Amino acid sequence: MTSIDWFDTANVADHKFGVKRRQLFIGSLFFITSFFLAQSVVFEAAVPFSVPFWAIIRTKYKEYAKYVLFGGLIGGFFLGFGQVVILALQIAMYECIIRFRYWKLPQSISVALAILLVQMIWQGVMYQGLPPMLVQFYVGCEAALALIMTLFMQVLFVNSYEWFTSHWTYEKLGSGLVVFAAMLTGMQTVVISYFSLPIFLLQLFICFGALVGSVPLATVIGAVLGTLIGVAKLSFTGMLSVATLTGLCAGMGARAGRFGVAIGSILPSVFFLFYDATLPLDSVYFTSITVGSIAFLTIPKKYSDKVRDKLFPQREEILLARQNWLTEHVTYKLEHFQHFVQFMKELVFERFMTTPVEASKEVSPMNTCLSCFRYDRCWGAQNNGMDKLMTDWFHMKGVGKESAINRAEDQIRYKCVKSTKIFEELETELYRERINGQYFHGKKMIALQLRDMSNHLNQLIAEMKEDTVSFVSVEKDIIQKLKEAHIECFQLDVLSNKPGARKIVCALTPARVDWEEDTTLAERMILPILYDIFEEPFEIEKVVACDVPFRHIQVSFSSAISFEVEYDIYSMSKGATLYSGDSHALFQLHPGLFAILLSDGMGQSKEAQHESRKLIHLMRECLNYNMNPETAMHTLHYVMSLKQQDDMYATLDFALVDLQHGDLWSWKAGGMSTYILRGKEVLKVESNAAPVGFLSISAIEAEKRKLKAGDVILMHSDGLFSSIADWDEQEESFLAYAQQVASTTQSIQEKLTTIMQSFQTHYDIEDDCTVLMLEVTHVVPTWAVFRPVQYSMS
Predict the structure, then answer these.
(1) Which residue ranges does UniProt annotate as crossing the membrane (predicted)?
(2) 3-class DSSP state for residue 776?
(3) What is the spatial distance between Cα 574 and Cα 719, in angstroms, rounded to a whole number?
(4) What percent of the chain has pLDDT over 90?
(5) Dihedrals phi, psi of 763, to nearest 5 degrees
């Protein structure tokens, strides 16, 4: 076993030991509570609290029922063996009542009925007939008190997760005081020398309440506990005044800190010692309250802070007011900056939709031609095609092929007697055209960047003007919908509320029946609810079973994508060299957006490879910084044109696949056509934009196509088709092979390999070649009851 395995095993063992230790601790608390409740005698005759406690724990904490049963039977033994038998019979009667299939009574009625039936039968047997009226009165009181105590315990003993997630209400606090008072009445016999456990706990509880809630809480605790203890004993009702005044004085001393609370809680007892000699304020009482005050001083501050947060949570109105103020202040600053950005955008690019002056198809005569004696022959009625030759020269200069440029220059020299001066003017005109294009690109790049900044600010301001606690409001809406569907979700967190990228974590109770899995409820009920709320599909991202602080499962939901993409790449260099001018990248910007980049540098050299790779890298950086694709394309077009190398540029074929809505967005700068194969239909995406770095043409427009499941996308560099054979014929053959193979059941890797092998049997690939093949399919959840099958289309 390696050290890592040993460490993981040790962590698992420590976790299991911690869970068992926590379960043992909670079970011990329930055992002690049940033990003292079984000894709590009201009106010196009725014992009404054991069965209600058993009923509640059996229903909501079934794993701890055995601790309650043993604690109740052992506690009842101290009142006599007969009380043990009565308690066992009452529990058995309660089990019979709740298991009766033909009628279902409320839990409180079932508890009271079980106690009443058993006591009447028991007392009837003991008195051999109808028991005396006083005994009947005590039996009725015991049943009534049991009914009331069951209602109190239902409020107090909520589901285990609510102890850690919900705030304590006044109803829950009152119920806790009633149960605690019942326990104190069962502790009356726990006196060790000069120490009394119930008096010690009463003093400690009052002091702690004064520290947490000052005068109101301490007074309520003292009054409620004093009243219930006095009523239960039918004596010492004067202790009500002592307990109430103790809470009042302790709360008033809370301003002086812990010592003020401790001293203030003792003063009322000293006062009543001299005022009322009938009260049992003896040495045992004063020793117990002194020990209780000392124990109160040792309680860590973190515990009082936790209880204070539960009882008196910070009001949401104050938080909302502060957040609204911050939102308004920041919004004002952002709007002021937004006006500045708008001004700069209009100043820099006031005619945003204008286009640069492009090289016209009909070239005007040069100045040299106007003064030449052969002007009429070249440009007049006897036109010998000089305008076409100059137009071809401009075009070949833009393409950058040396052989074509030399051929065009030779034709001009053959027809022109002043070719040297003509070439000088042509170079000047070309330079002026490029400068104009560069100036236009600079303006447009800055304008697009300002537009992106303006859009980001608009989005930020819109989000801040929305509900300032949008996450809280969304969480409340979801929880309300789950409650209406009777789904027990005790904690829900919206980690991200961005459309298409939402993340929600929901804590649920584990499956309660054997045939149900932990994900059944989430799959069948919660997913449709989330779809109705957000109008977008969701999926279960992760399910984690947790035992801390109690047993539950955490289900993570995330926005689901409707489509997925599988792809393969075919790439080869000219002559099987190490350097290829083609570069590509396929990656996910986020789970719902897939990016495709294909670049072809000029030539097959190391410089061409560096140029195309640099372009791919810069484009990825722009996308990672959330730059608009159009802005990114124009920015790269401008930046790459400023390089020092002459006549170096690269094409860029850029596409985004929206996997949630099934859209294809395509931007092309000198790239080849993109083909979308859909059965027998072929959709082409084309563009006439110039390569990146060439400034004569700057229009880079986005093309959008709607995708369907089963579509095949093909993107390629210009090296796929040979310059010798007919271009259209090669394209038709390639698409025919692709359509034939795309409908088969082969993997995408096998399909692309088959297509390229079939194509190369008829045509040779002379240049660097890259082919990207992507197949779009529907995403089907693993739990779906059916899975669509794609059939080949004949």
Answers:
(1) 24-55, 67-93, 105-125, 137-157, 259-277
(2) strand
(3) 9
(4) 4
(5) -135, 140
Residue in 457, 508, 161 with CA at minimum distance from that of residue 332: 457
Yes or no: say if 543 and 524 are a contact pair by the CB < 8 Å rule: no
Per residue in 189-203, pLDDT (tens digit) is 788 888 888 888 888
CA distance 695 to 682: 32
Q: What span, in angstroms and rounded, lies between the C-alpha atoms of 245 and 264?
A: 10
Angle at 716 (CA atoms; ends 711, 718), nearest 5 degrees: 150
Question: How much is the average pLDDT of 582-597?
Answer: 86
Instruction: Please identify which residue in the block is written with the tokens 């070239």.
Output: 363
How far is 467 from 320, CA to CA, in rounded Å?
A: 10
Give the predicted TM-score (pTM) of the model.
Answer: 0.50
> Among positive and negative, which fits the CA dihedral 416, 418, 420, 425?
negative
CB 552 within 8 A of CB 509: yes
**Amino acid present at 223:** A
Q: What pLDDT, in 10s, does the model give residues 377-416?
A: 677 666 666 777 777 777 666 555 666 777 777 777 777 7
CA gap 346, 368 in Å, rounded:
41
Secondary structure element (H or E) that encloses residue 407, with its range: helix 402-415
Residues facing residue 195 across a β-bridge: 192
End-to-end Cα, the chain, rounded Å: 58
Q: How far apart are CA 294 and CA 392, in angstroms?
A: 102
> What string of DSSP letters covers 500-546?
TS-EEEEEEPPP-STT--TTHHIIIIIHHHHHHHHSS-EEEEEEEEE
| Cβ–Cβ < 8 Å for 587, 596 | no
Each residue of 422-452: pLDDT tens digit?
777 777 777 677 666 665 666 666 666 666 6
Structure tokens at 684: 């082409």
Confidence of residue 775 (pLDDT cuts 50, 70, 90): very high
Query: What integer is the mean pLDDT of 192-218?
Result: 85
Length of the chain in terms of residues written: 794
Token pair, residue 427, equals 């170079």
